[in-house]
Amino acid sequence: MEMKVYSISGEPVKDITLNDSVFRRDVNRDAIYYAITNELANARVGTSSTKTRSEVKGTSAKPWPQKGMGRARAGRRRSPLWVGGGIIFGPKPRDYSYKVPKKLKRLAYKSILSLKAQKEQLKVVEDFTVESGKTRDLAGILKRLVDGGSTVLVLKDDDVMLKRAASNIPWLKTLAYNRLRAHDLYYGRSILVLETAATKLGEFYGEDE
User: Fold this and answer.
1) Looking at the structure, do residues 115 and 28 belong to the same domain, yes or no?
2) Do residues 79 and 10 both lie within one domain?
3) Residues 115 and 90 in one domain
4) Is the pTM of this model over 0.85?
């Protein structure tokens, strides 16, 4: 498919041919759902914890005799039925992470990129960097490319200075072309892809077609 390539001034300067299997394919919404759910589950800390009747502080002595008191029988004050007692079936630390097939994740990435291209929310930009590493310089570039809102910038490599400049912009996420995240891509209002990254995306994710 053909797309316009924009300069950092926000003007279209040329066309680029992108891999149809990555940027112009049928959208598999099931794959997108499973990939995003997996990322959210893997991000859960899972440290919530409650104490059972054997872990709460308190005596194990019987509070009153079994019979003759005219009261309901009770075994110990740490019973879950008592205030301050243990918790029945409460949460314990656990690992929520799980794996999904590699091909499913790749299909989800391609589906999201195709969906964003269909909605005209994906824009290819000439390769650039921010040599100063200053947020102000990057913000000036982004102002000419997007209208605001959550934005994802797909990089062609591990550009340290560009990442440093982006780290102080709360609505901007930076992703390497070979380490995408379905959640960020799907919920990003605008996707900016560097020209070289766009070519590499077609090569990297189109190889299993």
Assistant:
1) yes
2) no
3) no
4) yes
3-state secondary structure of 115: helix
Rounded CA gap, 119 and 112, in Å? 11
Residue 114 and residue 54 share a domain: no
Helices 195-205 + 102-118 axis angle, to 10: 140
Phi, psi of 186 (to 5 degrees): -70, -40
Residue 25 and residue 110 in contact, taking contact as beta carbons nearer than 8 Å: yes
pLDDT tens string for the chain (209 positions)?
A: 899 999 999 999 999 999 999 999 999 999 999 999 999 999 999 999 999 999 999 998 999 999 999 999 999 999 999 999 999 999 999 999 999 999 999 999 999 999 999 999 999 999 999 999 999 999 999 999 998 899 999 999 988 999 999 999 999 999 999 999 999 999 999 999 999 999 999 999 986 65
Structural domain span for residue 35: 2-44+101-205
The beta-strand segments (E) located in the chain are 2-6, 12-17, 122-125, 151-155, 172-176, 190-194
Give how many domains the chain has, as a whole number: 2
Instruction: Answer yes or no: are the C-beta atoms of 177 and 204 closer than 8 Å.
Output: yes
Residues 37 and 50 in one domain: no
